[in-house]
Design a protein that fits this description.
Number of helices: 4
Strand content: under 5%
Shape: rod-shaped
Largest sheet: 2 strands, antiparallel
Helix content: 55-70%
Order of helices and strands: HHHEEH
Number of strands: 2
Bound molecules: zinc ion
């Protein structure tokens, strides 16, 4: 091997590396950057390529695990909050029994069935469906509206 030219020695070394399953990758680095990489590789007693790969994998793993764990935790919390909120709304609307509040992990009971033909359900599920032949609007809503109108009139008279 002593009689090999430097170029031949480099070529022999590259051939040996390829045999080990390596691929030549050129890197453009600042002298300072190369110095930092050399220092780390020397410290770890590694080839520059192995050192770079280790650092890349270390970085990916750190990023990946940190993000995945955080996301899983947040996702779980968000789902729990949403489920809780949905159940509270359904209970407030009278669609599910209030016992559902004690068990937020339970799937909420299905909403009320749609009213039969000829009947209409107003926006408030606590109001019973009304006959569209008899009423133009929900009778409870109508009486509430009339009451508000009377209250307003009374206020105007007194004020
Ligand atoms: Zn109504």
């Amino acid at each position: 091997m002593a009689d090999l030219t430097p170029a031949a020695r480099v070529e022999a070394w590259r051939k040996a590396k390829r045999k080990q399953g390596y691929k030549f990758v050129g890197l453009w680095m600042t002298p300072a950057g190369k110095g930092e990489l050399d220092a780390v590789a020397w410290d770890r007693q590694q080839d520059l390529g192995d050192c770079v790969l280790d650092l890349v994998r270390f970085y990916s793993a750190a990023q990946g695990t940190a993000d995945v764990r955080l996301e899983a935790r947040q996702q779980h919390r968000i789902e729990a909050n949403v489920a809780d909120d949905v159940i509270k709304r359904l209970v407030a609307a009278g669609a599910v029994p209030s016992t559902a509040l004690g068990a937020p992990s339970v799937v909420p009971a299905p909403l009320k069935e749609p009213p039969p033909p000829g009947l209409k359900q107003c926006g408030n599920p606590a109001h019973p469906p009304y006959d569209t032949n008899e009423h133009d609007e929900c009778p409870i809503h109508a009486s509430e509206r009339k009451q508000r109108y009377r209250d307003k009139k009374a206020k105007q008279r007194s004020g």
